[in-house]
Amino acid sequence: MIFLFLLSLLSDNNTLYLMDKSVSLLPVEEEFQFLYSKNGIQITYGLRDSQNLYELYRIKIRTPLFSRMFFEYNLNKENDYEFKTEEHLFKLRWIPEEKAKIPLSFSLLFSPQSSQNEKYTGFGIGYWKNTKNNHFLNITFHEFGDFFDRIPLNIGLSGLLNSNQADLYYRYYKTIPGKKNIFENDEQIGRVEYGGMGLINTVFYRLFSKIYPGIRLNYEEKDSIFIPVPGDTATNRINIKDLFTEPFIKTKISEKSSFRIGFPMSRKYIKNDTLDYKKKYLGFNFLYTYSFFHFIELTFGIQKSWRNLNEENDSETRGILGLELKLNQTTFISVRQGIELDFPLPGELKEYDNHTYLLFNHCF
Questions:
Q1: CATH number at residue 216
Q2: What does the alpha-carbon distance between residue 274 and residue 283 come to, in Å, rounded to a whole number?
Q3: What angle do CA 114, 115, 120 make, to 5 degrees?
Q4: Rounded distance between C-alpha atoms, residue 183 and residue 204, angstroms
Q5: Among 214, 328, 233, 330, which Cα is nearest to 273's?
Q6: Which terminus has fewer CB within 10 Å in the chain: N or C?
Q7: Which class for 150: exposed (0-12), middle (13-18), buried (19 or more C-beta within 10 A)?
Q8: What DSSP letter does each residue of 177-237 carry, written as one string?
Q9: Structural domain of 226
Q10: Total number of domains constituting the chain
Q11: Strand, helix or coil at 6?
């Protein structure tokens, strides 16, 4: 029963999941446009299957207060099967002048409790050259409150780097395990210890005049253990590892046309005393883009994925048709439609519909 319940949460009925995850990402140029901006709004909305929506909302706002002190607000909300997060992050940040002799930046951070995230608070120190070149070390205390023997401590390192040859974004974090006492009817029944780590990395190279390689990577690991009281009862440990990455190459054919080849991969691993769950994906994406009037682009493409779920294999193929608008170099809108291409082909036109995504990015 537990195994079936977990499967219901892990999107296993959606054999298109890797292709969905890849096609729902912003173009890497738009992603860096958002990362480099002082203010921005990013929205992705689409169908994972007939019953589940994918939603992503990101907002960033920075406004000056006095001297070199700034107020910042960041929203990160995502809804994707079992992965749900809603983080509201408030910052007070002191930013030095761009030509300062000692380019140090200091910040105070606070995130209140939300429906999907526990509250945390902390501080940061970093190197600040400008919005495209900065690096920060943040230390935050999570879920501070009663019943903790040791409050979870998160150490994070993140930054941006821009040059003529490349754009780089990275974020690495490590959670030193917290220890929390669990009570039932005012009596302690056990203790939970949990920690984790994660890595996000996006790189886009411009090493050649018309060939632009890059990679996206997102890795997360969580580890927890329940230690009951009294100690003669068996403990329960669970380890979760989740990886998504996509190396890609973008090639410009002419002033108006280009194509992009990607090789997305995904791995998920869950293990506890009774469960050993493994899901692996390999994929291939080919997207051809033609530009009209410098602000309208039409995309044609094909996606292929191969899946191994607990030693059982299957594969999927679909086409992609997309329309993209770039307005005033600040607003990006894209509609991407999946088209069923597996044989035997559908007999009715409506059955060719194979998930639709809307992407929006506005920076100011």
A1: 2.40.160
A2: 30
A3: 30
A4: 49
A5: 233
A6: N
A7: exposed
A8: EEEEEEEETTEEEEEEEEEEEEEEEEEEE--SSSEEEEEEEEEEEEEEEEEESSTTSPPEE
A9: 2-363
A10: 1
A11: helix
User: What does the block give as tokens for 50?
Assistant: 């007939």
Q: Locate 187 and state its tokens.
A: 């009596």
Retrieve residue 219's tokens. 């890795």
Phi then psi for residue 328, to 5 deg, are 55, 25
The span from the CA of 76 to the CA of 63, in Å, is 18
Instruction: List the structure tokens of 345.
Output: 């082909």
**Tens digits of residue pLDDT in 287-322:** 999 998 889 999 999 999 999 998 899 999 999 999
pLDDT band (50, 70, 90) for residue 51: confident
Pairing of strands 148-150, 153-162: unpaired
For residues 11, 12, 15, 20, the Cα torsion angle rounded to the nearest 10 degrees is 20
Amino acid at 51: Q
The residue among 214, 196, 162 whose CA lies nearest residue 26 is 214
pTM of the model: 0.91
